[in-house]
Amino acid sequence: MSNREPAFPITEKAYAKLNISLDVTARRPDGYHDMLMLMQTISICDELTIQPERDGLVHAVTSLPYVPGDKRNLAVRAALKFLELVDDGERGMKISLRKSIPVGAGMAGGSADAAAVLRALNRAYGDPLSARELCAAGEEVGSDVAFCLLGGTALASGRGEILQPLKALPPCAFVVCKPDFSISTPELFRKLDEAKLSCHPDTEGLLDALEKSDLDGLCRRMYNVFEDVPDRRMRTIRAAKGALLDCGALGALMTGTGSAVFGVFRDAAAAEKACETLKREYRFCRTAEAVGALL
Ligand code: C5P
Questions:
Q1: Whose CA is nearest to atom 10 of ligand 1?
Q2: Contact predicate 120/72, CB 8 Å
Q3: Can you tell me the mean pLDDT for 168-189?
Q4: Buried (b) or exposed (e) across 227-263, using 16+ Cβ within 10 A?
Q5: Atom of ligand 1 nearest to the CA of 143
Q6: What digits encode the pLDDT tens for the residues 77-112?
């Protein structure tokens, strides 16, 4: 049992991610897929508060009725994992999540919440786990949790847990729009397995453009192989990308397995202007900026 009494309440922000690129390079024997993804943390975030609960249970309460509060919630799984690792398994806590990251959007909302729980609890307990140990705990909770822990700009490979931190993106701003449907990640992976991919992102070219802080070069090469999966909903995704480009985006892409789509703009003013127009069409439409490393 940890000899340090954590100071409650604990608060933390859980930042969403965008995929600047997404490639699936192989299907693995363990049922997962090998990925190669350029990832970016953005300012759209959920807000967490963790308070003690006398009954010894760990549960979550959220602002969205359809987000579960039990072990199906990655934030709860992350807290249980942390308490097991610091040998404080009898501890009860309530994790309140004020959700702003849309669910089923490809923005790693659940993973961001889990990562924020791990970061916040580690801080509150006096940093008993190293960054490496935290990432290992995160990996067990979900494939995107390690990136959400680390944050910033990174190349993710393996299941998504092997991370190479990269130079920050050149100055830019984002607009994120989500069509009114969500996409199930396992479902889209299944459809991808049945499809034959003929195009892949130019990851080397993307890394080169990033190294040169060449925003146009990055935007030209943004690519997500999930957009090529035969699925009726991709028509709506393409329309959303078109709408962002019509509003002046330098590039537009679906993030993760969707359904959120984002555009990259030269600056915040251009993004704000586009967002004003697109809000008429998309219930979820927000501007965002890049966020640097979190650990
Ligand atoms: O790891 P996580 O629970 O976030 O993954 C959710 C689902 O996405 C997995 O059950 C799997 O179907 C799929 N997935 C995959 N390959 C990855 C990451 C996720 O096939 N690298």
A1: 186
A2: no
A3: 97
A4: bbbebebbebbeebbebbeebebbbbbbbbbbbbbbb
A5: 1
A6: 999 999 999 999 999 999 999 999 999 999 999 999
Residue written as token pair 């993973």? 111
Catalytic-residue membership of 144: yes
From 46, 113, 144, 231, active-site residue: 144
DSSP state of 293: B
Listed in order, strand segments (DSSP E) in the chain are: 10-27, 33-52, 58-62, 93-98, 153-158, 162-165, 173-178, 223-224, 251-254, 261-265, 284-288
Is residue 208 annotated as part of the catalytic site, yes or no? Answer: no
Q: If we measure between CA atoms, which residue out of 138, 161, 160, 176 comes closest to residue 42? A: 176
Q: What is the mean pLDDT of the chain?
A: 96
The secondary structure element, H or E, covering residue 58 is strand 58-62
29-74 pLDDT, tens per residue? 999 999 999 999 999 999 999 999 999 999 999 989 999 999 999 9
And the tokens for 245? 């480009």
218: DSSP letter: H
Ligand 1 pocket check for 157: Cβ under 6 Å:
no
**CA 242 to chain CA centroid, nearest Å:** 23
From the CB of 160, is ligand 1 less than 6 Å away? yes
Peptide bond into 171 cis (omega under 30): no
CA separation for the pair 202, 144 (Å, rounded): 22
pLDDT over 80 (residue 123):
yes
Beta strands 251-254 and 153-158: pairing type? unpaired
**186 CB under 6 A from ligand 1?**
yes
Nearest to 136 by CA among 124, 152, 155, 122: 122
Q: Which two tokens stand for residue 31?
A: 């049922």
